[in-house]
């Protein structure tokens, strides 16, 4: 009889231990617009695999890819009410959380990958502080790539864009400012509605990185690519501060270390794949129109400065804009001097 009591007690302890072990598992629900099978999701899967391994299965992500949980503004709302804990945000979402970070998407600001990396590093502290103020922890930047304009008709001059029905992400102040500088009145839509709108003819032009155009299949509704990128598209993987604080110090350090490494690898890979995607799009029939002359390039540079100034005080401070532009000028000057 005592044996059975002891056996029963041991079983109860095992059940209790199993329950406690299960209850301690931290599942971080993560949403993104990136589709399943994309390089973004493949790298996040590798990140998750290592996170599970290094935390003994106590911390893991559960993914909601391809916009099934909505888009950036939906992600923010769902994080707020606890339905999600993390997300891969584009610049639009970053603008809601940390408006200062939207300077990374400013029109005609960057000219190369090295310039982007320089600004990320030089302004790491103010960007991280702005994200923290918004209630999130930065797990890593995701450089989405150069933003090109895709159309059904060739843009032989900047003025030609005025005749196109261009899409703009609803609420995207950066893209709206760029279009306004060009004198274009775009049609605001959620990115989830872009494909159907291209099919019905509600819009016939859009902007995005080559890799995104391929991943989202939007390229099938375009024939031409304007050769000068409108901007660089910044993104970030963010975790709610509340969810981060629920992790132990060791788990926090492990998550941060793993995330930084994998997201850096993702950025390197995405840059290569964006170049490959641009070549692939041309092989599939899209035409990269001729590079405009120096006068047009100079005009774009001036329009970029004008658009960035108009956004100062609305998203980022005038001082931050001045600091970033000055830092880039000094970086370019130093690079030219070396040559």
What's the topology here?
Layout: H1 2-24, E1 26-31, H2 39-54, E2 59-64, H3 72-80, E3 86-89, H4 91-97, H5 113-122, H6 124-133, E4 136-151, E5 167-169, H7 173-182, E6 187-189, H8 194-200, E7 205-208, H9 210-215, E8 224-225, E9 231-240, H10 241-245, H11 249-283, E10 287-288, H12 294-311, H13 318-338
Parallel strand pairs: 1-2, 1-3, 5-6, 8-10
Antiparallel strand pairs: 3-9, 4-7, 4-8, 4-9
Describe the structure.
The chain is of the alpha/beta class and 339 residues long. The chain has one domain (24-338): Bacterial extracellular solute-binding protein, family 7 (D-Maltodextrin-Binding Protein, domain 2). It has helices at residues 2-24, 39-54, 72-80, 91-97, 113-122, 124-133, 173-182, 194-200, 210-215, 241-245, 249-283, 294-311, 318-338, and strands at residues 26-31, 59-64, 86-89, 136-151, 167-169, 187-189, 205-208, 224-225, 231-240, 287-288. Strands 1, 2, 3, 4, 7, 8, 9 and 10 form an 8-stranded mixed sheet that branches. A two-stranded parallel ribbon has the order 5-6. The protein is globular and about 60 Å long. Mean pLDDT is 91; it is low at 1-22.
| Number of H/I helices | 13
- Within CATH, the superfamily carries the name Bacterial extracellular solute-binding protein, family 7
Q: Give average pLDDT, whole number.
A: 91
Task: Return the string of H and E elements.
Answer: HEHEHEHHHEEHEHEHEEHHEHH
CATH level 3 topology: D-Maltodextrin-Binding Protein, domain 2
Anisotropy-based shape = globular
Number of domains: 1
| Rg on CA atoms, Å | 23 Å
- In the CATH scheme, the class would be Alpha Beta
Percentage beta strand: 15-25%
- Residue ranges: pLDDT <50 for 5 or more in a row? 1-22
Share of helical residues: 40-55%
Given the helix and strand composition, which structural class is it?
alpha/beta
Largest sheet: 8 strands, mixed
Q: Tell me the CATH architecture.
A: 3-Layer(aba) Sandwich
- How many β strands by DSSP? 10
Ends distance: 89 Å
């Amino acid at each position: 009889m005592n044996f059975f009591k002891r056996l029963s007690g041991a079983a109860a302890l095992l059940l209790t231990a199993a329950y406690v072990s299960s209850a301690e598992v931290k599942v971080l629900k993560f949403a993104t617009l990136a589709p399943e099978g994309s390089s973004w999701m493949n790298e996040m899967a590798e990140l998750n695999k290592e996170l599970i391994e290094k935390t003994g299965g106590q911390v893991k992500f559960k993914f909601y890819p391809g916009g099934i949980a909505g888009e950036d503004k939906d992600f923010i709302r769902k994080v707020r009410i606890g339905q999600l804990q993390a997300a891969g945000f584009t610049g639009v979402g970053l603008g809601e959380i940390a408006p200062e970070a939207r300077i990374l998407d400013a029109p005609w600001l960057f000219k190369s990958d090295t310039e982007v990396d320089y600004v990320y590093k030089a302004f790491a502290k103010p960007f991280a502080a702005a994200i923290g103020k918004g209630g999130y922890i930065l797990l890593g930047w995701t450089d989405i790539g150069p933003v090109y304009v895709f159309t059904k008709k060739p843009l032989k001059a900047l003025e030609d864009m005025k005749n196109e029905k261009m899409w703009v992400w609803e609420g995207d102040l950066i893209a709206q400012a760029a279009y306004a500088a060009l004198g274009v009145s775009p049609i605001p839509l959620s990115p989830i509605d872009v494909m159907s709108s291209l099919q019905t003819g509600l819009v016939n032009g859009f902007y995005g990185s080559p890799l995104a155009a391929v991943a989202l299949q939007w390229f099938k509704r375009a024939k031409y690519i304007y050769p000068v990128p409108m901007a660089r598209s910044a993104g970030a993987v963010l975790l709610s501060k509340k969810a981060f604080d629920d992790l132990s110090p060791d788990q926090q350090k492990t998550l941060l270390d793993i995330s930084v490494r994998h997201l850096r690898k993702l950025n390197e890979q995405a840059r290569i794949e964006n170049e490959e995607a641009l070549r692939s799009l041309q092989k599939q029939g899209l035409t990269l129109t001729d590079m405009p002359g120096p006068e047009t390039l100079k005009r774009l540079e001036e329009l970029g400065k004008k658009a960035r100034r108009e956004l100062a005080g609305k998203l980022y401070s005038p001082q931050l804009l001045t600091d970033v532009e000055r830092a880039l000028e000094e970086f370019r000057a130093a690079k030219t001097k070396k040559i």
